[in-house]
């Protein structure tokens, strides 16, 4: 029989010296039994919690990036990023940049 005494927890925490911190937590009850159907249901709940948490983290990080840009612009640092194509940066996010010749 599955251990029902403690829920599993999915957490995401962000701290920064310049931005407001945030954290998200999701409690996911463990399967009520060792039955395959119960385990499948648990894994589905876990997968959904991960997807929801990722969406919230992305939203929060995007907001903080905008705060950083605003802060840099108001501090006179806007010229430091003029040569960066923001659309291209967004399109290639998470991928290695390929130099175009």
Defining key terms:
alpha+beta, EKC/KEOPS_Gon7, transcription
Describe this structure in words.
The chain has helices at 36-74, 86-91; strands spanning 8-14, 22-28. 0% of the residues are buried. It has 101 residues and is α+β, with helices and mostly antiparallel strands. Strands 1-2 form a two-stranded antiparallel sheet. The chain is built from two helices and two strands. It has a domain at 30-74. Helix content is 45%, strand content 14%. The radius of gyration is 20 Å and the shape is elongated.
Described by strand count, sense and barrel closure, the largest sheet is:
2 strands, antiparallel
Give me the secondary-structure category: alpha+beta
Instruction: Name the helix and strand elements from N-terminus to C-terminus, one letter apiece.
Output: EEHH
Strand residue content: 5-15%
Outline the low-pLDDT stretches. Answer: none
For the terminal residues, how far apart are their CA atoms?
Answer: 62 Å
Strand order of the biggest β-sheet:
1-2
Count of extended strands: 2
Organism: Ophiocordyceps camponoti-rufipedis
Keywords: Activator, Chromosome, Nucleus, Telomere, Transcription, Transcription regulation, tRNA processing
Subcellular location: Chromosome, Telomere; Nucleus
Biased composition (Basic and acidic residues): 61-72
């Amino acid at each position: 029989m599955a251990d029902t005494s403690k829920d599993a927890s999915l957490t995401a925490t962000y701290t920064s010296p310049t931005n407001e911190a945030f954290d998200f937590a999701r409690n996911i009850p463990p399967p009520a039994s060792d039955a395959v159907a119960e385990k499948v249901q648990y894994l589905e709940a876990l997968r959904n919690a991960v997807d929801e948490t990722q969406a919230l983290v992305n939203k929060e990080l995007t907001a903080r990036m905008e705060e950083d840009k605003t802060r840099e612009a108001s501090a006179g640092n806007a010229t430091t990023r003029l040569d960066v194509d923001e659309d291209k940066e967004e399109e290639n996010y998470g991928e290695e940049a390929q130099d175009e010749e």
